Amino acid sequence: MFPLYNRFVAKKKIVIAVWLIFLAAVVVRFLWFRESTYFGFDEARDAFTSLDIFLKHDWKLIGPPATGNLGLFHGPLFWYFLGPLYLLGRGDVFFVSAVFRLINAAGVFGVFYIAGNLFTPWVGLVAALFYAVSFEQYQYAMYVGNPTLGVWCWLSIFIGAVMLYKKDRQAKWAPALMLAGAALGMQLNLMFAYFFLPVFLLLFLLRKNIVWDKKSVLAAIGLPLALLATYFLGEMKRGFLSVKKAVELIASGWVIMSPGQTKTAMYLEKFRAMFHDNLLLLPGEGLTITALALIMVALLLKFASKEKPVRLILVWIFAWLFLAPFGGHLAYYTHVGLAVGLLIGSAYLLGKLRKTRGGWLAYPLILMVMFSNLYLISAQAKRSLIFQIKPQPDMRLVDELAVIDLMYEEAEGKGYTVRLTGIPYRIQTVWAYLFKQYGVPKWGYYPFWETGNIEGFAGYMPPPKSGTTCLRYLIREPLKGLPIDIINEDIKTENIFSRATSKKEIGWFIWEKRQARDTNCHDNKPI
């Protein structure tokens, strides 16, 4: 009786600990919530498109274009997921951001399940704690974009792998879950097609544990195919154009890298970044972080020779090796989710240390990992997403709304005209959404948009019809990513129409109030 009771009490304590770690993850992800919410072109495009799917029944078979105007497209499933969130939140970007943070925080349960079953409950708790405070996961939590859900794709893959390893009662469904995780990844981002290769390796390593029957075989084939159905239908409609283009790019050794960077250097830099952004605050390109990576990998390889679960975790950590032969991309999110394997591997090594004479050192090391991540979060949070994820950082929603409010306040109910220098240049999408969702409901009218609307891009702003309003504004988005030539060109052009009367900095935005030079100017509003 007593052993059974003790086991029940121990299990209850573990459950409570996991929920406390989840609450900690939620708290961390909502630190500087408003200041850290990002809203740029991709987010505005996705908001418009996902709402149009449900409100206008504008069904999509292909998703957003892949980076680099390559003629390739991601899957549209992300839009079908995003639309109901915007509908539920009545278009509120903050609401959608909050949901994404909660989804990411819930990964604590997946991490604990994987690490706790492959190793011990203690390792599971430490791995979950590391995930809760991870700087990298904080970035993905506030990133409302298609790659960010890739974290859950990897969790699904390894939950399936654990089911096979432990010969769970439901293990026959594990291959379907693992392949579905890879298929979902490919839907989210075309480059994540490489997820299938580590899944095949995991299935090979665990092949003796796989139990097939008719239903599980159908699920393993049908579920991934169903998730990828839009690709097949879209490609049939487009004459398999993307397939031909993808083959051509792979054959040519396609890469998107920094000038002068080699593919090997790029992947090693991204690998080191996993240690920097998840474990210890060390210089990202220094010898110290490299030494840490080498020592940890060497230890994991040593233990992998005797322990099969460690081999599974190494497949996770080094899954990026499956992408490397097919080209490369400097985007931060190509490695999305891989660092979760590193966190589990780190917790496992600390568990090994805990059983030695110097076991007490495990606890200061845990505190160091927590401090390093929380320091990185506190230093970056108020600037939102890092530039490795967004080439135009500092597009904080709180600043954008402040810019809009100040324009209306200074206008005092009169009509006004806006010229904005931003990215993409002269594309109305970001501000069209902000005025539609926030500015007009609060203030009652639209401004005139000096540069008009570019066809083919979502959103509409009223262009000037004749003459000009007396009140004008020149707005410049955050400088990084903006060519100085177009900034100067817009200033030069606007100086023809108006003169500056006041200027303010709102976050990283430049807000400039101007008076029209035309003596016949008016205060009309768009009809």
Question: Please, could you describe this protein's structure?
Answer:
It comes from Candidatus Wildermuthbacteria bacterium RIFCSPHIGHO2_02_FULL_47_17. The chain crosses the membrane at residues 14-32, 77-100, 112-134, 140-165, 177-205, 217-234, 280-301, 310-326, 332-351, 358-377. This is Glycosyltransferase RgtA/B/C/D-like domain-containing protein. Keywords: Membrane, Transmembrane, Transmembrane helix. Residues 74-226 form the Glycosyltransferase RgtA/B/C/D-like domain. The chain has 527 residues and is of the alpha/beta class. The chain has two domains: 13-383, no CATH class; 397-516, no CATH class. It is 57% helix and 6% strand. The chain has helices spanning 2-29, 33-36, 41-55, 77-88, 93-105, 107-118, 121-133, 135-141, 150-165, 174-188, 196-205, 214-227, 229-237, 241-251, 263-276, 287-304, 308-317, 338-354, 362-380, 397-411, 429-443, 484-497; strands at residues 255-256, 328-329, 417-421, 448-449, 471-476, 498-506, 509-516. Strands 4-3-5-7-6 form a five-stranded mixed beta sheet, sandwiched between helices. The protein has a two-stranded parallel ribbon with strand order 1-2. The radius of gyration is 26 Å and the shape is globular. The mean pLDDT is 91.
